[in-house]
Design brief:
The chain has about 375 residues and is α+β, with helices and mostly antiparallel strands. The protein is built from 11 helices and 11 strands.
Length: about 375
């Protein structure tokens, strides 16, 4: 089922991306020869007007065949060359190329806004004046090798309760995190952190919710994971369902989309910088196999989580496509900038060769990442 959901999500995101290129090309009179979902061989195709619409067997991709995107003799000087992308003004070429990225970001904004309208999981600390439903203390990170990791606590686990043995005078009894915050009915992430720090290295019983079921885990905090106090090695946040009216949903959706895009871009630049200095860590990268598992986890948590994760993938797809690398939209835009600076076109043979090499390198990188994903599953 996870594979099916992943394929559906991928098809939707690719459709949105290619729809961007297609729409802007049509808007400015550029001829579009084919709009394809997936890569050949074809399942079926149908021609409407001048454009062939095709569905293909290999679902991991899609394309829009724009006349003149890869220049040849026909697109440069042929009978229909006036409708060729390569013969359009530079600003139109740029708009057509950047449209796919723009549509992916706009789609992410729409999904996130719909999430806010339906009740998007969000940090209570990020929206201190908002009203949240079903707020819970959730584990947001687990330090490798920590007591929490050894006890199999996972990111996303919601903490229902925490208890330990306490001394009340000469009597030893069980107290929980609520006792430490004066008997309140609810507790916050900071309350849990204080409760752990005051454990005196005694075992703590943590009740974790997993969907409709709960389980108990016994784990002992140790000093050294966090300097100066006992800790389990977990990051915590208070997460609740934030539901907003439509105007606020789109406003907060725009802010969150911007923040996610900025964070993704910074992370990607950092990763490629580390490649050049020999410090890149493939553990930071997830390919199709890993994403299938993440999509399955998001779907298991609920439709809103799947919606949010789809938005995040859409932003990643947009940012990656903006990289100034041959075969990507960013690489083609870089060629346009170079042509504008030197006031003459790049030779079609050179541009096409660089794009072909770039595409081959991207496929090779995808294969390496996929192999790494599979390797992580078994070792």
């Amino acid at each position: 089922m996870s594979i099916i959901i992943f394929v559906v999500v991928l098809i939707v995101l690719i459709f949105v991306h290619e729809l961007g290129h297609f729409s802007i090309a049509k808007l400015f009179g550029v001829r579009v020869d084919e709009f394809g979902l997936g890569f050949p061989p074809k399942i079926f195709s149908k021609k409407y007007g001048e454009t062939v619409y095709s569905l293909n067997w290999i679902p991991f991709g899609g394309f829009v065949k724009i006349f003149g995107e890869d220049p040849d003799a026909e697109s440069l000087t042929g009978s229909d060359s006036s409708r060729s992308l390569v013969n359009k003004p530079k600003w139109i070429q740029t708009l057509v190329l950047i449209a796919g990225v723009s549509f992916n970001i706009l789609f992410a904004w729409l999904l996130i806004s719909l999430g806010f309208m339906s009740g998007l999981p969000a940090s209570v600390n990020s929206y201190p004046t908002a009203h949240f439903n079903d707020a819970k203390v959730v584990i947001t990170s687990v330090l490798p090798g920590s007591p929490a990791a050894k006890a199999n606590l996972k990111t996303g686990d919601a903490i229902v309760s925490m208890s330990k043995l306490c001394n009340l005078g000469d009597v030893q009894t069980t107290c929980d995190v609520r006792d430490s915050v004066f008997g309140s009915n609810t507790f916050k992430a900071s309350d849990v952190q204080d409760f752990i720090a005051q454990s005196d290295n005694q075992p703590i019983t943590i009740k974790i919710s997993e969907g409709q079921t709960t389980k108990e885990i016994v784990v002992t905090p140790i000093i050294g994971v966090v300097e100066g106090k006992a800790a389990l090695g977990i990051g915590l946040d208070t997460i609740g369902a934030l539901r907003l009216p439509i105007h606020q949903a789109f406003y907060q959706g725009a802010i969150l989309t911007y923040d996610l895009t900025k964070t993704t871009a910074i992370g990607l630049v950092s990763f490629f910088k580390n490649i050049f200095i020999g410090r890149a860590d493939l553990k930071q990268v997830t390919g199709p196999v890993g994403i299938i598992g993440l999509v399955g986890d998001a779907a298991h948590l609920g439709f809103i989580y799947l919606l949010s994760f789809t938005a995040f993938i859409s932003i990643n797809l947009a940012v990656i496509n903006l990289l100034p690398f041959p075969a990507l939209d960013g690489g083609r835009i870089l060629f346009i900038i170079i042509e504008a600076i030197k006031r003459s076109p790049i030779k079609p043979k050179v541009a096409n060769t660089l794009n072909t090499i770039g595409f081959a390198l991207l496929i090779l990188l995808m294969l390496v990442i996929t192999f790494h994903d599979v390797f992580k599953m078994f070792w």
